[in-house]
Design goal:
Layout: H1 5-14, H2 16-24, H3 33-50, H4 57-78, H5 92-117, E1 131-139, E2 142-153, E3 159-165, H6 173-186, E4 190-197, E5 202-203, E6 207-208, H7 214-229
Parallel strand pairs: 3-4
Antiparallel strand pairs: 1-2, 2-3, 4-5, 4-6
Helix pairs in contact: 1-2, 3-4, 3-5, 4-5
Length: about 250
Amino acid sequence: MTRSPSQLEQYINKCPWQYYLQRVEGVVSRPAAWSHQGTSFHTACEVYEGASRAMHVEDVQEVFHEQYTALVDASLDQEPDTDRWMTAGPSGADDIAQRYTLGMQQTAAYVAWAEKNEPQLWESPGGQRGIELHLTAEISGIKVQGYVDQVIQEPDGSLRIRDLKTGSTKSKFQLQTYGILARKVLGAEVNSADWYLAKSGGLSRTVNLSGVTEGEVGTAFRALDEGVKAGNFPAKPGFHCRFCDVSHACEYRR
């Protein structure tokens, strides 16, 4: 099975039992408007960048609108009771409306930021561009994949990994994995990474990838692979159960 940073985050840093319920048993996750907001923002940015930034901001927002509406409608078909949706505080219905407004604002802010800063996306000799790249390679003998939001061409010829975030940043491990994958698949020097933070409309501090080795990243993926293949899925109940999208099927939840 191909491994990914999201699998590792769930198994190692969250709860192996959540991994089992979701990825082995196939328990259907409870909907969350924050997830649809993030997906729709990514789609809008991808379409905008794919059009070489030659779209009006209203047209980019329309992409967000259409995607968000479609995702919410599909989730309402699955779970019409919005009180059962996952939220960080407000009611499900209020959260859906508030995140639509927030997502529209964040989409417009990204367009303004990109027009001002004009980051240079990487492009291969064959015309492939550094937008939502699906990279797959073996890392220390484990097949690993990742979807890289953006690959930026640096002035010195090296590449920078960029991940777009509508919520809080995650661990650096995701960026480190993407860096190793980019080195192996694209055959390029990758020394840095960052996040575009939709909450603030700007970039995070640079994450240094120059010293990150394949062996270092591979050790973590081997631990994931061995644990899953051994059927080792201990439950780790705690505060994070509140934000678990399969907690409704979990006998250990708190």
